[in-house]
Amino acid sequence: MIWSNEESLSRSELEKIQVEKLKDTVAHVYQNVEFFRNKMQNLNVRPEDVKTLDDLKKLPFSTKEDLRVNYPFGLFAVPENKVVRLHASSGTTGKPTVVGYTQKDIDNWSELIARIVTMAGATVDDKVQIAFKYGLFTGAFGLHYGLEKAGICVIPTSSGNTEKQLMLMKDFGTTILVSTPSYALHMGEIAHSLGIDPKTDLKIRLGLFGGEGSSEATREKIQKVWGMLATENYGLSELIGPGVAGECTHLNGMHISEDFFLPEIINPKTGEVLPPGEKGELVITTLNKEALPLIRYRTRDITRLFYEPCSCGRTTVRMEKISGRSDDMLIVKGVNLFPTQVEEVLSKFDALGPHYEIVIEKHNYLDSLEIKVELNEDLSIDSYQEFERLEQNIKHELRVVLGLEPKLNIVNPRTLQRFEGKAKRVYDLR
Length: 430
Ligand code: DLL
Known about the structure:
alpha/beta, 20 strands, four-stranded mixed beta sheet, nine-stranded mixed beta sheet, Rossmann fold, GMP Synthetase, Chain A, domain 3
């Protein structure tokens, strides 16, 4: 089922809507947000200079740093008494990034979620357990109201207390799980340790996973453990939260709701707009936000866009799985390293499980890189020779892909830390 007509418009119908909404958004921020007005004036652009989608290029970028500098409400475009909800994204240091919603923004958010959950195959016959932490994080509340709007029963268990989650899942006959992919893996392990086989003892048939990246190998592992279809969705608090894009059952990229979010791909170093199909940083202009409209917001997420219509009947552009962030590049011994490169290598080896850690330290002014990875608990390695061969093969692959010689530490299953929310994989201790 396609939730909304806007998901299957022809390109020219869609662009007509986008241009009108773009003009409104630009006028809205120019009038109501000093930060954007100043930026536009510095570039000598006035709202009436934006007449076509191509004129987007004339507009300034905005970043998370801009939200931080204007903490807490400096980029809001409506009076504070029109804001009915605040969320914030967790910064590891310093102040969080605060985002606000008017009632219309909240209603639109539910519309966006209703779209992504129906495209993944959720129906009114389902019961959905939301295992995102309820709180300032946008994940839980965003999914919650959108699922209800779609008429689907919500079980707001929040994250943690995994044994109880599993008990309720069994007793209530939950059919859909909402969580981060890493928590789904962790829950699967706990289930097995309690003698529950999620595949046969539970009724979960679909996963709506997001909030962090995951490889195809992780998807396969989740599907195998749970006997479910594991779908992925994408979003970020600054733009609304979850609901920016989601996979349909064809699992062929995430459909962006383009009547709400106007995407561009840029070269993260130069800011140059790249042609369709090229990989770069995703930049989004919100087209329908009242409280916190953002112009050319730099997500820092690296992806590619595909404009060919999907066989599901939707015509909206699809974004490829995020392959990293332009700001998560690590420099080790002068070599650029993206954590997803490590995940890519490790996921090629069946003998390894999906949990790993990248640890970087400095000893005597020199960087050292260690990769810890768990063995796959479903496979046993019979001899020391076999283990050594595996180690040599992984080291070789890492050397070829990373251009670095990390220390490799293959550890026993279930020894690395597990997460109930977004997983932490990188420990830069320098
Ligand atoms: O994580 C919003 C969300 C919640 C999306 C639940 C989907 C489900 P933030 O906490 O602001 O918002 O973090 C946003 O998380 O820029 C990406 O780097 C990352 N991220 C979110 N979804 C995905 C995904 C929420 N499917 C940041 N794949 C984003 C890869 C993702 N990264």
